[in-house]
Structure formats: C-alpha cells, structure tokens
Amino acid sequence: MAAIPPPPRLFVTPERDMIDNEVSITITCMLPRQPVTLYAFLKSQKTDTWESWGHYVADDEGQINVSTDRSIGGTYCGIEPMGLFWSMQSTPDQMKGNRLRHYDVMKPRIVDIYVYIGHINHKFDKDKAVAMATIERWYIKPGVKRIPITEGSVRGTLFLPPGPGPFPLILDLWGGGGGIIEYKSSLLASHGFAAAVLAYSNHPELPPMGRTDMEYFEEAYKCLCRYSQIDTDNIGIIGISMGVSVALEIAAESKLKVKCAILTNGGLVRSYILLIGIAKATGMLPPSMSIDIPRDEDGHISTGCLSHCEYLRNEYGEDGFVKVENLNCPCLFLISGDDPSFENEQHLQEIYNKLSAVGKQDLVEVLRYPKAGHLLEPPYSPSCSLAYFHVDKVLARESSSRQTLYLNYGGQPKPHAEAQEQSWKAILQYFHKHLRCEKTKIGNIGSRL
Questions:
Q1: Torsions phi, psi of 251, nearest 5?
Q2: Active site residues
C-alpha cells in the first residue's frame, strides 16, 4: 500500500518581528511543478480588509522559496521576498481610497497567510487552503515607552527607548490630515532615538485651524526638556507633506536649535497657507474666495497647483514662504517624481536658490525616487495612489454632511515600494550621522524583536 504523502507545509519566519524587517516564506511537501497561490489577508485596526497574492510553481522537489522564486502573477510579479506585503490592496467590498494605517502601536498588525493549489485570483475560500500561518508585525520594540503628552496646550506622544539615555530627540510632523499618528515615532524609538509626534491640526483639543505658530512648538520643546532620557540639545525633525512646511518653520524661525531635518514631499510655503488652500479648493470659504483645481474623469483631484510657486507668490508675496535663508542645519530632501499633489522639484529649487544666495547651499542633500508617489511610508507598506480626505474634519468645521474628497497621490506600486525601503534606510543613516555626540547614547540600528 502506497504511503500517504504529507500535506503541504508553510513556514513563515520570524513569526513575530518588527514591521521594517523582512520575513522568510517557504512552502514544502508540494508535488513537483505544482502551481500554487500564496495569499495574504489582514484586517486593519479600522476593520477595513486588505489582501494580496502571488502565483508560484513548485520546483522539482515540490518546494517554493519566496526569497528566490518568481511570482508569475497576482498582485505582484518577479522575485519579491516582501511582495505579499507591499502589494496589498483593499478587498473588493471596501470603499475606494482606503489607506492602510496603524493606530494602536501597542498592538501588532496581524497577517494571515494561506496556500492554495492552482493559480487563482478571486474567491479565496479560507476553508480550501491547504496550509496557513499567522504572523505578527510590530511598530514598537519591547522596552520602548509610550508617553502621552497633554501638558498645557501641547498634544502628542513621546516614545523613549529602553535605558537611561540621553537619547537624541526627533520631532515627527505628519501632513495636513493631522491628528496624532504614532507609528513612525515608535519605529524611530525602536532604533534608539527619542521620538515625539506632535499634533498641530485636526485634533479635538486644538483650535479649529490648528496650531502652527512657533510658540506652540517651543512650548512642546519645554515639555520634552523635563525628561532626563532626552538629549534636548540634539534635535532632529522629520516632516512629510504639510509637515515639511512646519518643519522648515521650526528649523528656520523658532528658538529650537535643530541639528538636522528630513523633509519628504513638501516645500517652503507656510503651513497656514496650505490649510487656506484646502479651504479655497473645497468650497469651505465663500464663493468669491474659492478656486477650481483639476479633477480627473472620476472626480479625483490633484492639489499640485495649490503649491505652484508662481501662484503662491502672486497670492501672498514673499511673506507666503518660510525664511529658509535662516536655516543653519543640514536638510535631506526626499523627492518623489510621480507626485501630483505637490510641486516638489519647484520648491526644492526655490529652497536651493535662497540658500545659495547666502552661501548655505551645502546644507541641501537630495534623494530622488522618480516613480514613487507622495506618501512615502515605512518599508513594505502598501502604496496609496488615491486616498479619501474628510475636508470638514481636517479644517475642524461643523458640517451637516461630511465632505469627502479623493486625492491623487501617484506612485507605481513596485517602484514606490523600492523607494520606501531605500528612503527608510536613508532616514536612519542620516539621523545617526547628524545626531551623534559624545554624551548621546543611540541604540543598535537594528530593530529585531
């Protein structure tokens, strides 16, 4: 009597690790040259659902190694060890424009991975899977402390690495969506930095149009100075989108002595003008003050025209721009080439020209990612080329009906994924280079659990 062959086996290692580390996926005990679909599924903390899949063919030994074998179909193709993660997309039953975000960093992202016989592209019945594994992906390393900031008018969250420090401080400034988004700060703390994400708009305890005045950030700095684990003379800033404007304002015009800044897809227009631009473009101001912005055939908008330097100069004059000539710290600009939401190259040239005029052009360093979109996230995050935007919520306006816009953010999935992986390495290296000093203690650059 012939022996019954063992069932297919799926190995995903490590089963529990940081979100910015790769995993190894192998399948054994398949038939030689057997077609297989590898499928991943997750439910976000907002309960929206995401999926991805790749088509593989087992080798002559009935094995598949995702790190070395090629996917020939699915949501990604080619040899892509982390393709299951960066190619995730909303399941068909979800609303368009979803963006995968993680809101509670003290809990992991749970990903279920399944193996199916044959190449399939829909109707993934989990009961028909021949093997399955569940893994945890974390945004925070054990021992990192999470401390809410609710002192005075300041709102945010501080993350401290384990140990006495002192650790260099990174201020984390998100874009116009506002609120307190913690996962980048928790990741930075997991790499040995003290990191504080600060709310400056879209927060129930801040004024309707937020707080982007320098007094607010100087007050935040005074709050952070009370923590002995922080080296408050060793400060870096990281900003994305509208957060770039705020970061430049802090570095150039506040009392904080910033050592370095990393600026992703934004520019030197003042932050309050960007908020006014959103209001003008979405009918939140009287008709005489409104402007038309381009929409595609599906009604999705591209906001790049609102940041055109000629338009800004005509509307606001030079007062509409941050006085970047006052900068004294090195700045790394991360520039995406397929970003319809901001005139990144135009603003970079303006910044370079203004700094060159005062002999400070050497402060500028640039990394370009030609086919990446606006939203550069930590490694292996799905690209988001279209996102919904609740305008009334961002501008803290009372409204009888929620106003939702769909914004084009651009980016091609694979090049965008490559840009996220490369830029994250560059971010860590840049902060380690510029925030070192004799008394500062920076942890291991790795973030293994």
A1: -70, -35
A2: 241, 339, 374
Q: Quote the CA–CA distance of 295 and 220 in Å, as a whole number.
A: 39
Strands 331-336 and 364-369: parallel
Query: Is this model's pTM higher than 0.85 or not?
Result: yes
Per residue of the chain (449 residues), what is the pLDDT tens digit? 566 778 899 999 999 999 999 999 999 999 999 999 999 999 999 889 999 999 999 999 999 999 999 999 999 999 999 999 999 999 998 888 888 889 999 999 999 999 999 999 988 999 999 999 999 999 999 999 999 999 999 999 999 999 999 999 999 999 877 789 999 999 999 999 999 999 988 788 787 777 888 999 999 999 999 999 999 899 999 999 999 999 999 999 999 999 999 999 999 988 877 766 666 555 554 444 455 666 777 777 777 777 888 888 888 888 889 999 999 999 999 999 999 988 999 999 999 999 999 999 999 999 999 999 999 999 999 998 888 776 554 444 444 444 677 888 999 999 999 999 999 999 999 999 999 755 555 554 455 67
Sign of CA dihedral 136, 139, 141, 143: negative
